[in-house]
Amino acid sequence: xxxxxxxxxxxxxIAIWAVLIFNRLVRxxxxxxxxxxxxxxxxxxxxxxIPNLVEAVKGYAAHERTVFEExxxxxxxxxxxxxxxxxxxxxxxxxxxxxxxxAVSEAYPQLRASENFQKLQDELTxxxxxxxxxxxxxxxxxxxxNSRLQSFPxxxxxxxxxxxxxxxxxxxxxxxxxxxSVEFPTGAGPQ
Amino acid sequence: MTLEEQIRSNRIRSGMLVLSFGLVFVGIGAAVQALxxxxxxxxxxxxxxxxxxxxxxxxxxxxxxxxxxxxxxKEQYPELVRAVENAAIGAGxxxxxxxxxxDDPCPNAFAAGGSPKxxxxxxxxxxxxxxxxxxxxxxxxxxIGHVRNRDVRLMSLAAVLVGVVALVxxxxxxxxxxxxxxxxxxxxxxxMIVGIAMLILAPIAAFGIQMSLSRRREYLxxxxxxxxxxxxxxxxxxxxxxxxxxxxxxxxxxxxxxLYIETPLNNTSxxxxxxxxxxxxxxxLDARIELLEKMGGFQLSALVGPQPKLS
Lengths: 191, 311
Fold this sequence. Notes:
The complex is a heterodimer of chains A (about 190) and B (about 300).
Chain A: H1 2-58, H2 65-80, H3 84-105, H4 109-113, H5 115-150, H6 154-160
Helix pairs in contact in A: 1-2, 1-5, 2-3
Chain B: H1 3-36, H2 40-67, E1 69-71, H3 78-91, E2 98-102, E3 109-112, E4 120-124, H4 125-130, H5 133-148, H6 151-178, H7 180-184, H8 189-229, H9 232-243, H10 270-278, H11 285-296, H12 300-303
Parallel strand pairs in B: 2-4
Antiparallel strand pairs in B: 1-2, 3-4
Helix pairs in contact in B: 1-2, 1-6, 1-8, 2-6, 3-5, 3-8, 5-8, 5-9, 6-8, 8-9, 8-11, 9-11
């Protein structure tokens, strides 16, 4: 009788432990998902702003066709991207193309003075800032999540629960996702 | 300490704070009862209990009215609101906190409220005046760090509870000297001495609790800011600008001092200066800048001149 109870107790403990690990993985996965949706919202906003910007610039500099084509192509790539890695590539392309468009617009003082153009430029800068902020959070979360999936004992639960690693967004070195770490002074005395 | 541990410890401390606040008020009540008799203990403890519950939910708006922080819209302060939005995204908050502004030339900022959803970030007009976009984002990210680390409820509670302990003890003491004691005349002298001693000790105990909360938390929030913006240099530059400032915040007092990003009580000379050094709620700006230099691997003196400008 005693061995049966011991075995049952061990099984129950292991089950509880597995559930805890499972829940932690789900929570991290959800955080990564939320991080991604933050990026996605801004990517969509950026894609929506681009045609307006192109229209505004066309009004003053209709002959700069190559730049317009470049920007439009980048926008299409953004919209067709599936998954963070592809979206990251397309977003980089869009940033480069927009950079050239703004460089070109420097030569048109009337365009730069236009209120509509200034507003669009301001909005696009804001999306860029927000994408940068969302990217940092997303990559940090994905880094934590993926490292858990790769390490024992979470690895076993992850395999059984069919958890899959997530892609990074615009990141060359996965280790770059780690926040800087430093020892904090703990003394509470007067400084 | 990981973020989860920090959050858990903050939750426990918030509970402990309310509990010790209750105990201090039972003490004050007992002291008043010893001095004046009657049912003072029950009345005072009861009022304190109601006040504590009220504070738990309404500390944000209480602090808002004490500090003169008013709600603002994105149209009024687009840069500040955007900085808050960006930092909230960087910290992974579900929604950005509300934004308030204090009309004061002294540059400073704080966060107050309860849960991340009911918190707000407040900045003075002085801060908005002297910080560029990068520095403002770093300062705001420090405050968002307090929100994410769940520091705000604890710090806000400390502010509204500590302040009222000092107020009530002070009132009771005044009555002891100028009013009731004469009226009751033949009270037990030992009880009266104990009562007065308690009334003197109560605010000291309260400030002790408040001070124990703050210093380490500031370092942690600086670290959170660097993590959120990825830019420890920006915060170091902002702190350097704050260091050059010697103005004093109009609405700041001992009770709310620990809320701010930098100590709002800048007494540069005299007895008050010596005292404020002893009872500082914040680590020195130099120590904080040094820590950021270590995090980011840079030297602030290489970025700016050796002496901060005086404004």
